[in-house]
Design a protein that fits this description.
18% strand, 219 residues, 36% helix, alpha/beta
C-alpha cells in the first residue's frame, strides 16, 4: 500500500494563532503545510502574503506547500521563494509562458507544481509533465474553503495516473477541495498521492488534529 501524504490547509486554522496550529499539525503527523495564497483578483478572496510565510517559517521544519492563486504569478515567485516556500504551485492561466514560470521556480531551487481547476484540461500541461514535481487537482473552484467535492475530477486523476505510468514519470498527484474521510478514499483509489484538507482536519472529532490526520493516512 502506497504511503499517502497529508498537507493540511491552514486556510482553516485560527489565524490569531497560526504558529501554534502549525506546531500542532507537525506534532500530529502532517507531512507538509499547505498555504493558500489568493490575491482577490485571480480568485475572489485575499489571504496570506510573503511576510506571514516568512514569520511562520521558523516555527516548523515541515515543507511549505505554497499554492499561488495569483495573476500574474511570475512577478511574485521570488518573494514566496525567499519567504520560505518549498513547493511552489501555480495555475497555467496565471502565466503567459508556462515553461518560463517552471524555470523561474527551478532557478530558486524549489519544487514545481501546476494546478488544474475543475474545468482545466490535462492537455494544457501535457508537454510539461516531465519537468514538474506535482500536479494539484482542484476538486472545487478555488477561492473559499469548505466547498463540496466535485466528483467529475476523478476521471482527470485517473487519466493523469495513467499518463504517469505510461510515460514512466515521477510527478505526484495532489488534490485540494472538499476532502473528507469519504472523498479522500475516492481520490486515493483514483491515484492521488497527497491530500490537502482543511475543514476535516481542523473540525472533525472536536478538532483532534492527530486523530484526523491518522484517519486520512489510513484510509
Amino acid at each position: 500500500m502506497k504511503k499517502i501524504k497529508i498537507s493540511p490547509s491552514i486556510l482553516s486554522a485560527d489565524f490569531s494563532k497560526l504558529s501554534e496550529d502549525i506546531k500542532r499539525l507537525e506534532h500530529g503527523g502532517a507531512d507538509m503545510i499547505h498555504v493558500d495564497v489568493m490575491d482577490g483578483h485571480f480568485v475572489p478572496n485575499l489571504t496570506i502574503g510573503p511576510p506571514v510565510i516568512k514569520s511562520l517559517r521558523k516555527h516548523t521544519k515541515l515543507p511549505f506547500d505554497v499554492h499561488l492563486m495569483i495573476n500574474p504569478v511570475h512577478k511574485y515567485i521570488k518573494d514566496y521563494s525567499d519567504a520560505g516556500a518549498d513547493i511552489i504551485t501555480f495555475h497555467p492561466e496565471a502565466t503567459e509562458n508556462i515553461m518560463e514560470t517552471i524555470n523561474l521556480i527551478k532557478t530558486s531551487n524549489k519544487k514545481v507544481g501546476i494546478s488544474l481547476n475543475p474545468n482545466t484540461e490535462i492537455k494544457i500541461i501535457y508537454d510539461y509533465l516531465d519537468k514538474i514535481d506535482l500536479v494539484l487537482i482542484m476538486s472545487v473552484y478555488p477561492g473559499f474553503g469548505g466547498q463540496k467535492f466535485i466528483n467529475a475530477v476523478i476521471e482527470k486523476i485517473k487519466k493523469l495516473d495513467e499518463i504517469r505510468k505510461d510515460r514512466k514519470l515521477n510527478f505526484q498527484i495532489e488534490i485540494d477541495g472538499g476532502i473528507n474521510f469519504e472523498t479522500a478514499k475516492i481520490a486515493i483509489d483514483a491515484g492521488v498521492d497527497i491530500l490537502v484538507s482543511g475543514t476535516t482536519i481542523f473540525k472533525e472529532n472536536n478538532g483532534d488534529l492527530k486523530k484526523n490526520i491518522k484517519i486520512l493516512k489510513q484510509i
